């Protein structure tokens, strides 16, 4: 029996209202295949990978919009080679009507390809508001970042919020994905205690092969101890199966408290399995 179809409605419904998905710029055909499974108006993030060019990213955002969803293009600060490249991206998005919402991240390269060393440097240009962007999401790291000190992450989050608020832009946070609810909720409580009341989208891995999940976890500094893996639903000694986020979402829903945690939604990292993730969500939702 598929455990997704046995989840109590009381647990499923609130958590999966207004969920968001992630795709690469090459995933347009996969999104089209999954269209009937995804509610109209769903936010679909379009990643900013090094092997995809400007035209491919713009075309992907147009596809998201054409299919009735809300495009959320990514801007990877350290992948940008110049201010001109950033302006070309923003101008293209504005022309297509796909640039209202963005996610701005530092990006994978250890050394910047151009003038922007991190997401904050992009935000401080003032170009986003100038090109009609209205809402900007930034990254959150409940389990830390393998290359950034914790105190730096906390100060950066405060600085990003201040920069965006000062430009009249609304903001939210999308967290790294994880297998353990405990650090996620603890991190959300901590930012609420510090007066950060912006919406948080909790990153969740869509159903995927356990080996792939572990590989991505290692890349992004996500904890995968044996006890965490068992809690999530797979074993580090047997990576042949497929794991879905059922247990994680149940635990998150059962322990979520609106008074302590505020506005919390779910963001699915699809890892190339956009249709599989969409099918899983359709089964899990009431």
TrEMBL record:
Pathway: One-carbon metabolism; tetrahydrofolate interconversion. GO terms for molecular function: methylenetetrahydrofolate reductase [NAD(P)H] activity. Keywords: FAD, Flavoprotein, Oxidoreductase. Pfam families: MTHFR. It comes from the Bacteria. InterPro entries: FAD-linked_oxidoreductase-like (IPR029041), Mehydrof_redctse-like (IPR003171). Its cofactor is FAD. Belongs to the methylenetetrahydrofolate reductase family. This is Methylenetetrahydrofolate reductase.
């Amino acid at each position: 029996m598929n455990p997704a179809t046995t989840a109590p409605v009381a647990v499923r419904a609130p958590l999966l209202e207004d969920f968001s998905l992630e795709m690469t710029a090459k995933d347009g055909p996969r999104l089209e295949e999954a269209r009937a499974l995804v509610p109209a108006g769903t936010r679909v993030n379009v990643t900013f990978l090094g092997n995809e060019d400007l035209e491919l990213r713009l075309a992907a955002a147009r596809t998201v919009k054409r299919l009735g969803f809300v495009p959320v293009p990514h801007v990877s600060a350290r992948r940008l080679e110049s201010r001109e490249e950033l302006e070309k991206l923003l101008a293209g998005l504005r022309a297509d009507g796909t640039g209202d919402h963005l996610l701005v991240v530092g990006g994978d390269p250890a050394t910047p390809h151009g003038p922007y060393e991190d997401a904050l440097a992009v935000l401080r240009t003032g170009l986003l508001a100038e090109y009609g962007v209205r809402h900007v999401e930034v990254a959150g790291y409940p389990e830390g970042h393998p290359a950034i000190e914790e105190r730096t992450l906390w100060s950066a989050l405060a600085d990003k919020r201040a920069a965006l608020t000062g430009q009249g832009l609304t903001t939210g946070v999308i967290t790294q994905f994880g297998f353990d609810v405990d650090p996620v909720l603890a991190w959300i409580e901590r930012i609420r205690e510090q007066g950060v009341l912006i919406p948080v989208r909790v990153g969740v891995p869509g159903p995927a092969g356990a080996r792939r999940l572990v590989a991505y976890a290692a890349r992004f500094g996500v904890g995968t101890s044996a006890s965490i893996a068992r809690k999530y639903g797979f074993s580090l000694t047997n990576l042949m199966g497929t794991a879905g986020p059922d247990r994680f979402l149940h635990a998150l829903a059962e322990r979520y408290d609106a008074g302590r945690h505020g506005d919390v939604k779910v963001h699915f990292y699809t890892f190339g399995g956009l249709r599989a993730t969409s099918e899983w969500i359709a089964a899990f939702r009431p």
